[in-house]
Write a structure and sequence with these properties.
By secondary structure, this protein is an all-alpha fold. It has helices at residues 7-16, 22-25, 28-36, 42-55, 59-71, 81-85, 89-104, 118-127, 131-141, 144-154, 156-170, 175-181. It is globular. It starts with 6 loop residues before the first helix and ends with a helix.
């Protein structure tokens, strides 16, 4: 199994996947400082490139791009179970497994987002020390590859940011993951 990214990298990715409002854009220097502390990796490079993208565009353009990328196309939603199941009973079951993982870890969602919302998943992974609880989360994160493929034409900057995570998530597929998650 591939090693998961450091918690700090997951936190930075989570923050960068939020809507680029003034709160995010006014903290780019702090985010960049945190990113510089990450160990050298594809994720660190992707974060640095994405921060350059954010710093090189007007807020209105960044907001338009975010909305076009994640709100206008179901194929690029940040709700990952949609990529695997669409809207059906299997998706509902996957959402329930994710919520159960959160509950078992004693972690409460403080937003109204569904449990499969990518920034939420990354935040959870960043604080969760128990690997068994993470199995449904990493299974859900495998859908990041589909998300990246959808973003290639709509928003290459977001695709590049998420590509290293998609590669790591794809490499976590082990037969015992599927057996444990179905219990």
């Amino acid at each position: 199994m591939t090693t998961a990214p450091p918690a700090d990298a997951l936190r930075v990715l989570s923050v960068l996947l939020h809507y680029p409002d003034d709160d995010l854009l006014n903290h780019l220097d702090e985010i960049a400082a945190a990113a510089k502390q990450l160990p050298d990796s594809d994720i660190k490079t992707a974060i640095a490139d994405f921060l350059a993208y954010l710093g090189g565009h007007a807020a209105i353009r960044l907001q338009e791009n975010f909305t076009a990328a994640f709100d206008m196309h179901p194929d690029t939603t940040l709700n990952l179970t949609y990529h695997a199941y669409g809207d059906n009973e299997k998706r509902a079951a996957a959402l329930a497994r994710l919520q159960q993982a959160y509950d078992q870890a004693g972690w409460a969602r403080i937003t109204g987002e569904l449990p499969d919302y990518l920034p939420l998943l990354l935040e959870f992974l960043a604080i969760q020390p128990r690997p068994v609880t993470l199995i449904p989360v990493w299974q859900c994160l495998r859908a990041t590859a589909t998300l990246v493929a959808g973003l290639e034409k709509i928003s290459p900057a977001y695709a590049a940011l998420l590509r290293p995570l998609a590669c790591i998530a794809a490499a976590t597929d082990r037969p015992d993951d599927r057996a444990q998650a179905s219990v």
